[in-house]
């Protein structure tokens, strides 16, 4: 635990992680808040609710690199001010918008979402040392698990017990407060030795968005696709067993195991290849489909859960090492977009596998998606090093054959 104490002792890090957790919990809950409002507040179908969720998610995916590029060029506080104002207007206006206009507003709200996650990752990359970075990104991935475990359930409870119209305002208020808090903290996004990055100019995209970075983005997509598909496979398995009411327990067990796994991963003395946690996660997910009831499913998801946060942490660490200082915002935005796309596509693809086979097929499809992404990342990373290493140069000692992210800045 010494590594975690060192990370939290970095000036401003504990405050940033706390405020970012607040903002990310609300952002994670935003899709559910809109869906509950459409179903309960507007008394419309779940298909209509899914439409709003899809447009918000599309905005999030497209907005990641856009906002990241703006941060690189305009500075953090300017972007945070713009997104805070946009979120304030969007969430306050929701109860007054007809459904058709709400669809467009949701896309704009996602496009201009407060970039809490990417800012936290950039700040970690520049304020921690190489030895501290893995532990710091492990804490960041644990933060994501906590936001997922806490936010959506609270939104569902409040929408059912209080008022579906009040919930969007509450979620928006927390997002605005989180964005304002990050702006007040104004974490550094450039290290002292990177101060001249802006003067030199932005590197061309082809100089950094090569096979190595694409490999990591593919793995980011594959990780969240697997996680999204696993959620649906859990529900389908329990529905077949007549035990859907236990779904929340299974998800809580999965999330708790992920937190433990993330903390253990961050305390390791040596880094693992970026593809390895994702590959193991895919392998551990497939057997969960054999569980006959909720008790065995609780046991089955622990193994996969222990690897979820490490997979996310390894991807974030690799992006931070591969991205040059002048484009770090855009690179972390692309990572966010890849993960958002994975979440959006995971459920329908796994749902199709379940419809064509059995609920166990959902776990198999999710696990195979993770394995495919890990294998693709492994092969692309090998290609990246083959292009950048002189033919006569020996392999660096201690590197695995497919260590994605072991390029410049590693």
TrEMBL record:
Keywords: Membrane, Transmembrane, Transmembrane helix. It comes from the Bacteria. Signal peptide: none annotated. Residues 385-410 are annotated as: Disordered. The chain crosses the membrane at residues 46-68, 99-116, 212-238, 244-265, 272-288, 294-315, 336-354, 360-380. InterPro entries: MFS (IPR011701), MFS_trans_sf (IPR036259). Pfam families: MFS_1 (PF07690). This is MFS transporter. It comes from Streptomyces ovatisporus.
